[in-house]
Every structure is written in C-alpha cells, then in structure tokens.
Amino acid sequence: MDQRALRHVFGFPRRSEQVTTNSKFHFDDAFRPFPKPTGEIPFHLDLEDVLGAEEATRIDKAGKMVFHTVGDTGNASHGADAQNSVAFHLEHQLQGAPADQPKFFYHLGDVVYFNGERRKYEPQFYDPYLFYTAPIVAIAGNHDAANVAGEDALQGFMENFCDSQPRHPAMAGQSNRTTMIQPNVYWTFATPLVTIIGLYSNVPGKLDKANTQQQDWFTSELRNAKKDIPVIVTVHHPPYSLDDTHGGHQPIVDALDRAFADSGRIPDLVLTAHVHNYQRFERTLPNRPHPLQYLVAGAGGFAGYTNLHRLKTQVHPDPAIKLKKFETSLPGFLRVTVTRKLIECEYFKVPPPPNHMSESHPAELVESVKIGL
After folding, report:
1. Which residues contact 78 (CB under 8 A, 6 or more apart)?
2. pTM score over 0.90
3. Which of 82, 154, 221, 287 has the fewest CB atoms within 10 Å of its CB?
C-alpha cells in the first residue's frame, strides 16, 4: 500500500478539535510586540543551511529550483479533509526527476488556528505533513500571533520555525520533522536563484506600529539584494483582494510601495495569503515593461471545501490593478519554478471527497503564469 494512503488506515493525520465557526475563541486586532530574534541582523538564512551544501550546489549548477507555497492550512473549524488533500497532493509532487522535485514548502502564514497554540502544532502541522519529506519554512500569519493567555505572541511559531538549532520537539509527535532555524519572524531566504524576503504583517496587517523597525529592514533588504537574481516578497496579509470577507490591506500596499521607492528595487513577484481562495492581480507600474504580479494563495485547508471566500466583484477600483485569475471553488496550492530566465507560478486545485486523496484523481492545474526576468 502506498505510504500516503496509510493515513486512512492508521488515522493520520490526527483530527484536531472540530469546533464550529461560531465557537468562542480569543482573537483581537491588537498589534503584538516583536519576539526576540534567534539570529543576527540582517536575518538571512541560506538555502544550504536548510538543504545542505551539496544540494544547494546542484540547484545552482542546474539553474532550476522548484518549491511549494500556500497559507492558511490549519484544520480547526471546517474539518481536516481539505488540509489532508492539499498535503497528499503536495507529497505526490515530490516524486519525479530530481530537478523537478519541489525542494521545500514555503508556508505563507496561519499555520495553527485559532491562536497559534503550541498544543495544536501536532494535529495541525506535524501530523498533516507527516509524509511530506521536504523542509517547511514559513512566515507568520495573524492567527499565529494572536496567542491565548499563558503564551507569548508567536511563542509556538518561534519554537517551531525560529529555533536556534534543529531539534525534534515533543509537540512533533510521531513526525520525524525537526524545527526550522529561521533567524527572526521577518527574514530573508538566500538561494542561488532567487532572494525571498519574508515579512511579518502582525495581527492587524501592519509591518510596524509606532516606529519603522521592520520597514527599514525591508527597504535595506531590497536595496542590498543581489542584482543578478530575482526577488520575491512574501507577506501574509494581501495588498489586494476582491473577496467578500477580508479585502485588501492598504497599510501593506503603502509599506511595500514605500520600500520599493526608497530602495529603488521592485520585486519580481509578491506572494500572500490570509484570504481563503486564490487570486492573481497584475499591477501596471510606470517605466516597467511588465506588470508586477501579486498572488493570493490562502486556500491551504483551513476553509475546508465549503467556506472558501467568494468574490464580491471582479473589478478593482484602481485601473492599474487587474484581477487576471481566481479560484474560489476548491482548496489548492502553488508550485513555483525559478530558473535563470523566468519564474513560473502554477496553481493547482485539489479534488473534493471522496476522491480527495487518490492518485487516480490528481490535483488539477488552474493556471500557469510565467514571469520573465
């Protein structure tokens, strides 16, 4: 029997508390203090520290790197089927030729619902990805930071993703996965083919409260990023969204635009989550030959199959912002391929039950967009 199919036989992943959407939980929009960094400024993590020097060298020589990305994966409200299905199809894509295999999963935030509880990392993170053998790195979402009484803001996130060294925590349960060694809650992933700058948009969707601590760091990272490889910016709260629940976040638009202007560097791609669906926006910018792509990928499992966010309109009020594609019917995930010539973003939607974890019903490609470099 295929190892992934053993989930059904042995009950993996474990189901978390199946609370209903109107259950009481602690959550507010207050800005949370930054946790203490575990690394040194400028908060860089090299690919070789995650994959090993030999694998990083192979990627550099091949001139190709593939990774997965999506956010909002925890299964606290709407059942575990959607998260299980996404995990199953992520695992399936790890097969194939070495150069085509995704090398890591970059989580776009909201790992654990509702309040980033440490005790929920086993049922909502370690168990669902029990058979996903690639490393998982992450930025934090609002639910990761809005912690319950007795836990510091982002305590669980920092313990599991910003550890000082890899270790197997008790909360990992039967998973062999070790903790990740990201240097801070906002950090830069340095790879041979792309620089990925990960931002922390806190609980309300802001980089900073009263000072410009993260804003200044972000500007510096853009300014100092290698000029001969592309830059991807990730942030949990989306600048643009036409959904009927959350919408876009103007403070994030302003923070990104300020850093673009102050650094003189515009990234090649912006990846976000928070809204539980998929949307792709193109933004026309002056003196730029190609529009900047903003992708929302927040259908990683939390919303289940019935609570994905719908669109209230398909027309953005700013004529420079165009919604080019969306998927609001089924959960899904992104596969990103970076070469020396382009970035390709492929969005896949996963099938619904009862065939949601079957190799005979593969994830379906919704769209593929290529960004020339």
Report:
1. 21, 302, 303, 304, 305, 306, 307
2. yes
3. 287
